[in-house]
Amino acid sequence: MEGGNFVNPLTQKIGFIGGGNMAKAICEGIVSKGLVPYGQIHVSGPRIHNLTWWSERGCHATQENGSLVENADIVFISVKPHILHTAIEEIKKTHPIMHQSKLFVSILAGITLKQLEHVLSEFGGRIIRVMPNTPMTVGEGCTLISPHHSATQEDIYLVNQILSITGTCREIPENLINVAGALTSSGPAFIYMAIEALADGAVKMGLPRVLASELAAQMTLGAAKMARDTGKHTGRLKDEVCSPGGTTIQGVYALEKGGMRAAFMDAIENSTKKAAEMAGHK
Ligand SMILES: NC(=O)C1=CN([C@@H]2O[C@H](COP(=O)(O)OP(=O)(O)OC[C@H]3O[C@@H](n4cnc5c(N)ncnc54)[C@H](O)[C@@H]3O)[C@@H](O)[C@H]2O)C=CC1
Ligand SMILES: O=C(O)[C@@H]1CCC=N1
């Protein structure tokens, strides 16, 4: 699903168990597009003073994961994967029974639908596993979604609606979510490193830092749009930049000599393997 211009605001209350980087990115993305106001967003975390980012904006913050789940219609589980059990146990302690069936959306790397089903079984809720990325803060997210069989068509539509307003949202078989997530969710870190390294090179050659960083980011944005929108193979786009005996091919040679392609491939392999390890699969 692609984000469109017309926004039909949601009436549902959206909750986040864990108010860290990724939860903030989703919150910023959906509020800035007008899908929900801050006042319709709930968040929980172990220390209330760590939730000031949320309360300052008018979101409802609580230290109790149980009351968060009770108050929200859709619950994004957005803690670190190793905190999942603790966070869910905290709900059970204060709210062993939920009076309404909830929609749980896990953004946890590695954790499978089977594991989520097991952990959340007592709540009888519907479950969707997603893999978002932080660029949704600026409306250019790339989210993957793998619904559990407990999720209804309405649930899937709703979660698609929420996540596609901040970029794209693509349904994917669960067996591909670790590798696709390595590309889309970890990938931004790899690209930031590339942007930083390119800017460093320009600084080394005398360009002021601020200008180098700004130009590197804008250039990357343009190159990404070319790769996405022209329909041309990236190899052809590269060839169109490389004049015979020109400047660019000298840089291409340096990257090939430095093993740039193999390094990026290794990065995706390592991140994919780590996601499987997090689920307990070696
Ligand atoms: N950061 C990213 O780019 C992406 C992260 N994810 C996933 O999102 C999840 C969160 O990652 P980040 O936001 O980066 O981490 P983070 O460390 O910024 O956020 C985690 C939050 O959980 C809170 N927390 C800790 N214990 C808790 C508990 N018992 N109950 C409720 N909240 C608790 C922490 O105070 C913190 O605010 C992870 O599972 C990660 O795999 C997925 C895609 C991208
Ligand atoms: O590094 C991580 O584990 C998380 C999941 C994908 C992006 N950040």
TrEMBL record:
This is Pyrroline-5-carboxylate reductase. HAMAP family: P5C_reductase. The lineage of its organism: Eukaryota, Metazoa, Ecdysozoa, Arthropoda, Hexapoda. Its EC number is 1.5.1.2. Pfam families: F420_oxidored (PF03807), P5CR_dimer (PF14748). NADP(+) binds at I17, G18, G19, G20, N21, M22. GO terms for biological process: L-proline biosynthetic process. Residues 174-278 form the Pyrroline-5-carboxylate reductase dimerisation domain. InterPro entries: 6-PGluconate_DH-like_C_sf (IPR008927), NAD(P)-bd_dom_sf (IPR036291), P5C_Rdtase_cat_N (IPR028939), P5CR_dimer (IPR029036), Pyrroline-COOH_reductase (IPR000304). Belongs to the pyrroline-5-carboxylate reductase family. Residues 13-110 form the Pyrroline-5-carboxylate reductase catalytic N-terminal domain. It catalyses: L-proline + NAD(+) = (S)-1-pyrroline-5-carboxylate + NADH + 2 H(+); L-proline + NADP(+) = (S)-1-pyrroline-5-carboxylate + NADPH + 2 H(+). Keywords: Amino-acid biosynthesis, Cytoplasm, NADP, Oxidoreductase, Proline biosynthesis. It is an enzyme of class 1 (oxidoreductase). SUPFAM superfamilies: 6-phosphogluconate dehydrogenase C-terminal domain-like, NAD(P)-binding Rossmann-fold domains. Its main location: cytoplasm. The keyword rRNA-binding does not apply. Pathway: Amino-acid biosynthesis; L-proline biosynthesis; L-proline from L-glutamate 5-semialdehyde: step 1/1. One of its GO terms (molecular function) is pyrroline-5-carboxylate reductase activity. It is found in: Cytoplasm. NADPH binds at N65. GO terms for cellular component: cytoplasm.
